[in-house]
Each structure stands twice: as structure tokens, then as C-alpha cells.
Amino acid sequence: MAPQRGNTLGTYSIEILTLQTEVDRWQPYAQELIDIWMSYKDHDDKLLNTRPHWANEWYPFTVAGKPWLDYLREVSSKDEIKEFKDVLTKIGLKQGWTLSDLKAIFSN
């Protein structure tokens, strides 16, 4: 599930921080940066599979006109999410719990 997974040309991680007092300026600025970063392409003119770090504040933003969470589920992390759930399911079978059990314990 790491953002750098599958990147054959390397990974570039960027973090931009701001003060809480600048939240009114932060959201539009961050969205503008996201739009630029998400437009980057490789040497074959294919969009890079840009993904956020899970712990960062990415949920209020959009990518390709979709909420970023939907974009992750449907495009950039679709295969990784399925693989992650499959592995968790196998572990749970051996240990006596299910994905529903995990969701009930850890979901907010």
C-alpha cells in the first residue's frame, strides 16, 4: 500500500506544511499543486501513478474531478487495495477473524 510501490523509475516524495492559521489559503493552494503533480507523465506520455502517503491530509482534495479517496479506490491503488484485502483475509482465516471484525474495531 506504500505510495512508492511499483515505481520503476524511482520515487519522489514531497511534503508541504503550513500553519493552521493559513487554512483558508492552504486548501486552494494544495489543490492547485495536486492538479499540477497529477498531470505529470512518463516518457511514454502516460500519467504517473501519483499517490498520497496514507497518513497525510489528502481526503479533502480531488483528482481528475473525483474525490481523492474514489480515485485511490478506482484508479491509483485499485490493485493494491484488492491484494491487501486478500492477504488480510488469508491471515484472518488462520487467526480466526474477518475483515468485518477489523472494520468494527479500527474504523472511525
The coarse silhouette is: globular
Structural class: mainly alpha
Strand order of the largest sheet: 1-2
- End-to-end separation in angstroms reads 20 Å
Number of strands: 2
Low-confidence stretches: none
Residues in β-strands, percent: under 5%
Rg, nearest Å: 17 Å
Instruction: Indicate the percent of residues in helices.
Output: 40-55%
The biggest sheet amounts to: 2 strands, antiparallel
Mean pLDDT: 87
Task: Summarize the helix and strand pattern as letters.
Answer: HEEHHH
State the helix count.
Answer: 4
Describe this structure in words.
This protein is mainly alpha-helical and 108 residues long. The chain contains four helices and two strands; from the N terminus they run H-E-E-H-H-H. The chain has helices at residues 23-37, 68-76, 78-95, 99-106, and strands at 62-63, 66-67. Strands 1-2 form a two-stranded antiparallel ribbon. Strand 1 (62-63) and strand 2 form a beta hairpin. It is globular and about 45 Å long.
